[in-house]
């Protein structure tokens, strides 16, 4: 499978959001990545359900929703109704993770689990076969534009080993500090999906930047 590119709208120009969405639609990007932050689980507040509802009919590609919030179980149905195709919760935020994953699948969405930089991939051993996606944070969650954490490379390799060992079909997604200097190595280690925010939206030609990431 050719790797996927998921531009993060957290870095988009929100005063011109409709045209930013159009740009992603016309590009070689595969998914829209949407970071939902509550100011509690992470020290920042981004956007929520009203923004998703306002763009869901404009988005021609799957909406990959990353919930950086406490108690994400409360909002599964609401985000489904707002257009989410992938519902990605943090391992650290879910007391009953298996139940959460079941609830996501029941609503017809793909289930993803995110690991913070300090959380070992071994924590997913008992649930990896139930997941469609694992997102590894390569920065500490909460803010865009942070420096990439180098330990992400061996962490991807350990996760890939676990996926193969358990015969899981879960994809590996990486988010944080992704650009043309590390994308090739991330893919070589086993990543399937690359999230890029600032690197795409702050570039002079975002469509070309996405194309370059896709061709790596």
TrEMBL record:
Protein keywords: Carbohydrate metabolism, Isomerase, Metal-binding
Reactions listed under catalytic activity: D-ribulose 5-phosphate = D-xylulose 5-phosphate
Pfam family, one: Ribul_P_3_epim
Manner of cofactor binding, per the entry note: Binds 1 divalent metal cation per subunit.
The protein's required cofactors: a divalent metal cation; Zn(2+); Fe(2+); Mn(2+)
Main function: Catalyzes the reversible epimerization of D-ribulose 5-phosphate to D-xylulose 5-phosphate.
Residues that, per the record, bind a divalent metal cation: 33, 35, 66, 175
Binding-site list for substrate: 8, 66, 142-145, 175-177, 197-198
Record-level Gene Ontology MF annotations: D-ribulose-phosphate 3-epimerase activity
Keyword Metal-binding annotated: yes
SUPFAM superfamilies per UniProt: Ribulose-phoshate binding barrel (SSF51366)
UniProt cross-references to CDD domains, sorted A to Z: RPE
Residues of the active site: 35 (proton acceptor), 175 (proton donor)
High-level lineage: Bacteria, Pseudomonadati, Bacteroidota, Bacteroidia, Marinilabiliales
Pathway(s) per entry: Carbohydrate degradation
Database matches in InterPro entries: Aldolase_TIM, Ribul_P_3_epim, Ribul_P_3_epim-like, RibuloseP-bd_barrel
E.C. designation(s): 5.1.3.1
Phosphoprotein as UniProt keyword: no
Identification of the protein by name: Ribulose-phosphate 3-epimerase
Gene3D superfamilies: Aldolase class I (3.20.20.70)
Family that this chain belongs to: Belongs to the ribulose-phosphate 3-epimerase family.
């Amino acid at each position: 499978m050719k790797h996927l590119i998921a531009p993060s709208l957290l870095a988009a120009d929100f005063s011109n959001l409709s045209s930013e969405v159009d740009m992603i639609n016309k590009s070689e990007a595969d998914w829209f990545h949407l970071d939902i932050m509550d100011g509690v689980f992470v020290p920042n507040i981004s956007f929520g359900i009203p923004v998703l509802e306002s763009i869901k009919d404009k988005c021609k590609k799957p909406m990959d929703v990353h919930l950086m919030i406490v108690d994400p179980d409360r909002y599964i149905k609401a985000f489904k109704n707002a257009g989410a195709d992938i519902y990605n919760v943090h391992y650290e935020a879910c007391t009953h993770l298996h139940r959460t994953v079941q609830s996501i699948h029941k609503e017809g969405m793909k289930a993803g689990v995110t690991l913070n930089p300090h959380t070992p991939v071994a924590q997913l051993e008992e649930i990896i076969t139930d997941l469609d996606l694992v997102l590894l944070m390569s920065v500490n969650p909460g803010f865009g534009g942070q420096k990439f954490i180098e330990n992400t490379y061996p962490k991807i390799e350990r996760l890939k080993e676990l996926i193969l060992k358990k015969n899981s079909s879960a994809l590996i997604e990486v988010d944080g500090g992704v650009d043309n200097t590390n994308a090739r190595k991330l893919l070589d280690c086993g990543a399937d999906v690359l999230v890029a925010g600032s690197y795409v939206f702050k570039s002079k030609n975002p469509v070309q930047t996405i194309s370059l990431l896709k061709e790596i």
